Amino acid sequence: MRSFRNSTKHDLTRDTSSSRSVLPASSYGDDGDSSADGMPKNAEKSLNYLLELFSHLPHVEKLQVIATKFQPSSKDKFGPKGYMVAFKNYTELVSLVNGIAANYIGEKKPVLTSDSVAVRYDGLPSEGRLSYLEVSDTLVAESWNKFKAVMRDVDREENPASCKPNTIIITSSKRDFFLISIQNPVTTFKHRSVFWGKGRFSQVKDGELLMISHQIDAVAFKDTIVFLTSRGDSLFVDESAVQKQAARTAEKMTKLHLVSNEKMFLEAVKVPRNAHWLFAVDDKRLEKIGDMRIQKEVAKVFQLKYSDGRFSTETKGEIACLLKVLGKQGMLDVVENIPMEVSTRGRWNPNKEK
To answer: What spatial distance separates the first Cα and last Cα of the chain, rounded to whole Å?
Structure first.
């Protein structure tokens, strides 16, 4: 626990030694070809980049911690500015990043390994896998520019607790990477609250305490953002863009006469959860679904009502099941021979299983 109130200000940029960059020169374009294990090359680059960042994190010089307010319902998601978190001792900050690095690549149940799955963001939940986008992608470009503006306008004097922060950013003075965590780090103590410390009960004065979690939701470096959790998605992804893309795909499906109740289907896609499932359907997948042979097989395996070349969409339940299948959230349990919903999407690769 670190106190905002009584900490001596420590300017983390005063160190005169040269700042070390933790990231190699690299660039990302489209997904391109796949590597030997079936993962797109740029997904593999994103994963390797991330592993390298966490391995070098404890050695980065001139680390900084910035607190800000994230407002997902606001057009301006971040800000209006960031607040520098001052540590009484720089060793406390080093201890913090050591804990984060150990959480993600340490020996005991690391969150990230070379076998982790990385995919280009497709609207589906990021739990259990990594998803990424280039910062120039229309889904995140506007939010990314606003985020960068907040990082340029960092207040070094005002108490970070004054903005009631819910987002912590760990970065370097070079701003060549950002570890972003959505959390409520500030706890306000009043009336001399009592807590346990160093084997005995102690009292603390009224004030704010800063408690930073080791959980990271998104990581940005160079020209790429990697989402580690669905909270990370919400930081940057423009939901209106997801809705528009899903609506376009739904219109294409009605023109192909794939659903029985087109009006109800189009209305259902306006629901955010449904929109995310349909967003995962690209043109190649939609073209395959247009094949009547595949339609019949899908209907048979997933027990969907189907007749005259159309999937039944007469109820919300039928629509939800169809969207899950289209959005790669359905699987067949071949042992029990029953369809099931899956929570993550990764290519099956027995050669990488240990």
So the answer is: 39
